[in-house]
Design a protein that fits this description.
Blueprint: H1 21-28, H2 35-49, H3 55-60, H4 71-75, H5 90-98, H6 115-130, H7 155-162, H8 169-180, H9 213-231, H10 237-248, H11 259-274, H12 280-296, H13 301-305, H14 309-324, H15 328-345, H16 361-382, H17 412-427, H18 436-451, H19 455-458, H20 466-487, H21 493-526, H22 530-534, H23 536-551, H24 558-573, H25 576-580, H26 584-609, H27 643-649, H28 657-665, H29 668-672
Length: 675
């Protein structure tokens, strides 16, 4: 091949031989092309001459014309999947290296000689982000590479080493928005939610999607004071506040303007806007705007294949934001993505594994606990198995008992972490077929946790601040909801038969007591905390507990139960705008509670007029036609029925409370997602 020969655009181009003696001496100089680079160049030239079929054609064993994309891939309508196992275009690589990188130092060796070296270079880039490096440059040759944690069969790993990046970042962002945003319930047609096209404006100012100084301070304060005390996603809140101060002071050198940082900042602003004092008409478009901007920074492939601590933190904050936007399905999807990215970051690896994690042990522990917390509570709400078991490491939790018999006082965060740990341990057990000993183990574990709580979490008389009162009722809500969830299988006839009358009666008493305590905690918490008023998880746990309590028979104190349900209905309906923000399932549950309350009042009035000596019948279906035994499948859409008529026709003796509960709490969006 002569020096004037031209190669196809996708093939590397290198001089075939020196033109004269001077050039030959310069080329042979070790400082210009060391022997290792020479061998790599020879292999690349050989690979260019012997180009094989693209990966899709090789997989299907069909003809390939070796173009980019090939005719076969174009014909099958997937030209974006047409990759070759060879280095990309040197012209594109040169342009990529000349552009400032948001991920930190990049080395020309990333064009390199093996598939593993490509991914190792990506890991070096990711480490540059975590360390706060934002400038362009070259990696040191003596740096020890970190192996891939995704595995060779990962889609991200395959695309990393074989793909040719789209020509512009805008195209990558557009592809992400059109493919992912609809899945997360985001409408990108609205001009207000358009994502920013650049990380910095042309004049060098900060991102145009950021608010003015006053609004940024207000929204950050709302997050710090109202959201952070109940979530504990950030272990470096002070550092985030310094970043906000740098933005306000226009100190562009005081923080790293990379996409993970911008994504995290917009996620904080979205969460702060949700819990702000703004009117709903102003609050709704504001937090949705910042939510879309935060998600838009995930629209480049680089950040998904190179996860960082800030990216994990941003996703953990965005999950509850999506829940509170009445989009729990999107939060479920985003939660699964968060866990996969955490695995690729190495958070599940033990500390003894060298080079396993790209964050410090303390940071990894904090992220693991936050992931388990969020995934466990959301899985409990959906009655689905959690996906974060691999993140549940026992050494992350404090001991419940100390040597010498000294007392342990777990904080709110530590108590929630322990509760999620117990949920993960026992949710994997089929308690509908478990023995009585297994249920006793559950109760003993939660009793041990209760004995180790801080004084203010045990009794409100020990609370010395408003924050401690809120923590008490918040933990009371989640703890009793967790106990009732683990006891829920006792509602099935199969489990009651296996336990016997005495055992099933004891478990039912625990179950009903936990439901009452959960509802009471929500009522008290809503009177003093905006978090319980606007949090989807708090409202869901309280409504589901009240609904199950209404459908459960053999109550010890029916009058007390009616009073609790009446107080909950009053608490939820005192603000019409809150009800308007409820999801479909929550609105159906509230309507069912109101209908049950009405039916109960009617039955009480009828019973007072009837001779007390008459045999009392079920108050829920007196004189009405019962639903046939084939179950609830005959009713297609509960929202199309009158709730009063449906509940009047429900035969509580023929159906399990779980059937009625699941039917009311079902959400079409969740059913379509297979949840």
């Amino acid at each position: 091949m002569g020096p004037s020969s031209r190669c196809p655009p996708s093939r590397p181009r290198h001089p075939s031989r020196p033109r004269d003696a001077t050039t030959a001496r310069q080329t042979a100089t070790p400082s210009t092309i060391p022997p290792a680079n020479l061998r790599r160049i020879l292999r690349e030239r050989q690979s260019a001459r012997n180009r094989k079929a693209c990966l899709p054609c090789r997989e299907r064993k069909v003809k390939c014309n070796h173009e980019q994309p090939c005719q076969t891939c174009v014909k099958r309508e997937h030209p974006d999947l047409c990759f070759y196992r060879e280095p990309g275009n040197s012209k594109f690589l040169n342009r990529f290296q000349q552009e400032p990188s948001l991920h930190g130092p990049s080395s020309p060796e990333t064009t390199g000689e093996s598939l593993n070296n490509n991914w190792v270079a990506g890991n070096r880039d990711a480490r540059g982000v975590d360390n706060g490096s934002a400038g362009a440059g070259h990696s040191s040759e003596g740096q020890i590479p970190t192996p891939s944690l995704l595995g060779g069969n990962s889609i991200i790993a395959l695309a990393r080493r074989d793909s040719v990046q789209p020509p512009t970042e805008n195209e990558r962002r557009t592809a992400f928005e059109t493919g992912i945003f609809p899945l997360l319930g985001m409408d990108m047609n609205a001009q207000e939610g358009r994502s920013p096209h650049s990380h910095l404006a042309q004049d060098g100012s900060t991102n145009s999607s950021l608010p003015d100084d006053q609004e940024m301070i207000e929204l950050f304060s709302f997050y710090r004071d109202r959201v952070h005390p109940f979530s504990f996603v950030l272990d470096d809140l002070d550092e985030i506040e310094k970043m906000v101060c740098s933005l306000i002071n226009q100190d562009m050198e005081g923080w790293q303007c990379d996409s993970p940082s911008l994504c995290l900042l917009h996620a904080i602003l979205a969460a702060g806007a949700q819990y702000s004092n703004l009117a709903l008409a102003v609050q709704l478009p504001k937090y949705q705007k910042y939510l879309k901007h935060a998600l838009s920074f995930l629209g480049t492939f680089d950040y998904l294949r190179n996860p960082s601590k800030k990216l994990i933190q941003a996703l953990l904050i965005l999950g509850p934001v999506l829940q509170n936007d009445m989009n729990p399905r999107a939060a479920w999807i985003l939660g699964g993505t968060t866990i996969r990215l955490a695995l690729s970051l190495g958070l599940h690896q033990p500390e003894s594994t060298p080079g396993a994690c790209r964050v410090s042990p303390a940071e990894a522990q904090h992220l693991r606990l936050a992931i388990v917390w969020q995934d466990t509570l959301l899985s409990m709400a959906f009655d689905q198995p959690p996906a974060s078991q691999v993140m549940d490491i026992g050494t992350d939790l404090p001991d419940l008992e100390r040597s010498g018999g000294s007392t342990v006082a777990l904080s709110y965060r530590q108590s929630m972490n322990w509760m999620c740990h117990l949920l993960l341990r026992y949710q994997s057990v089929h308690l509908d077929t478990a023995s009585m000993e297994r249920y006793l183990d559950v109760f003993q574990e939660f009793n041990a946790l209760e004995r180790s709580l801080a004084p203010h979490l045990k009794d409100t008389r020990h609370c010395c601040s408003i924050q401690e009162i809120q923590e008490h009722h918040s933990f009371e809500l989640h703890r009793n909801c967790a106990i009732s969830t683990l006891c829920r299988p006792i509602l099935s006839s199969r489990a009651r038969q296996a336990m016997g009358n005495k055992g099933s009666s004891m478990i039912l008493d625990k179950f009903q007591d936990a439901l009452k305590r959960s509802v009471c905690a929500l009522i008290l918490l809503r009177s003093m905390s905006s978090h319980a008023t606007r949090s989807w998880a708090f409202v869901h746990n309280g409504l589901s507990s009240a609904l199950l309590l209404s459908f459960t028979k053999h109550l010890k104190d029916t009058e007390d139960t009616r009073q609790i349900q009446t107080q909950l209905i009053q608490s939820l309906t005192e603000r019409n705008e809150d009800v308007g923000q409820f999801s479909i399932a929550h609105r159906k549950a509230l309507k069912a509670l109101q209908a049950l309350q009405k039916l109960t009042e009617e039955d009480v009035a009828k019973e007072s007029a009837i001779n007390e000596a008459q045999t009392q019948r079920s108050t829920s279906h007196r004189g009405e036609t019962s639903i046939p035994n084939e179950g609830l499948s005959g009713v297609q859409d509960l929202s199309m029925l009158d709730m009063d008529d449906w509940l009047r026709a429900l035969d509580f003796d023929s159906f399990s409370p779980l059937d009625a509960y699941n039917f009311i709490m079902s959400d079409e969006a969740l059913i379509e997602a297979g949840l």
